[in-house]
Specification:
Elements lengths: L1 E8 L2 E2 L9 E2 L3 E4 L3 E3 L30 E5 H11 L12 E4 L11 E4 L3 E8 L4 H7 L4 H8 L4 E7 L1 E3 L5 E5 L7 H9 L5 H4 L8 H15 L1
Parallel strand pairs: 6-7
Antiparallel strand pairs: 1-4, 1-7, 2-3, 5-11, 6-10, 8-9, 8-12, 9-10
Length: about 220
């Protein structure tokens, strides 16, 4: 298991973003130098966990609980075959493109050691948005991506450090529950009846997803 690339984005003006400023950092490209990774601060204030990476819409993106976004190269390869087009590393706006790592099957709260120093913790899957769809230029992309159910993973930074392409990725901890990224994503998108199952992941879960699971479960009890 390793990092194929570390991808950073710069603010770019586009006609399709919902932001008042009209810019997005979703277009990320691999870099060939070490990148510092740290916890960026709370959502709404903190941006990306990677130095030099732009998060332009902090209301919905960035912050400690989604500081880093990872996508498996294997998932990109599947989409390449389905869409009939090339998808370079970074195409989904991911910071990390990995090889040999089952990201959809990763458990919420699972921890990855990267490059010997950085420690990341899985918090949730990525919910697709209009900016993602327009960035790819694929009609109906939000629906197709959602139905596939392989959203990539958001991670929080537990221990900072530097990473670069080629670094090994080691799963150093897997919690004792069955709440995977794929399950969390389905519960948050297509099957809300699964929300009570997310509670087993506890506070490792992204706070917004945890709040949804608690509210849904409380409503059932009422």
């Amino acid at each position: 298991m390793k990092l194929l690339s570390v991808n950073l984005g710069r603010p770019v003006a586009v006609p399709y973003t919902d932001q008042p400023e009209g810019v997005t950092g979703i277009g990320k490209r691999p870099v060939d130098h070490p990148v510092r990774v740290t916890a960026p601060g709370p959502k709404g204030v903190g941006g990306s966990g990677l130095a030099g990476d732009a998060v332009c819409h902090k209301r919905h993106h960035g912050g400690n609980d989604q500081a880093v976004y990872a996508v498996a190269r294997e998932d990109l390869d599947e989409w390449e075959r389905e869409l009939g087009r090339t998808l370079p590393n970074g195409s989904f706006g991911e910071n990390l493109t990995t090889s040999g790592l089952d990201i959809s099957g990763a458990l919420i709260g699972e921890r990855w050691r990267i490059g010997g120093s950085v420690l990341l913790e899985v918090t949730s899957g990525r919910i697709p948005c209009r900016t993602f769809q327009e960035h790819l230029g694929e009609r109906g992309w939000v629906r197709r991506f959602t139905l596939r159910g392989a959203p990539g993973a958001y991670l929080r930074v537990l221990e900072p450090g530097e990473i670069r392409a080629g670094d090994p990725v080691e799963v150093v901890y897997r919690p004792d529950h069955d709440v995977t990224v794929a399950l969390q994503f389905r519960a948050s998108t297509t099957d809300r009846s699964l929300l009570p199952r997310l509670l087993a992941a506890g506070t490792a879960l992204h706070p917004e997803s945890l709040a949804s699971a608690r509210a849904y479960t409380a409503g059932q009890g009422g």
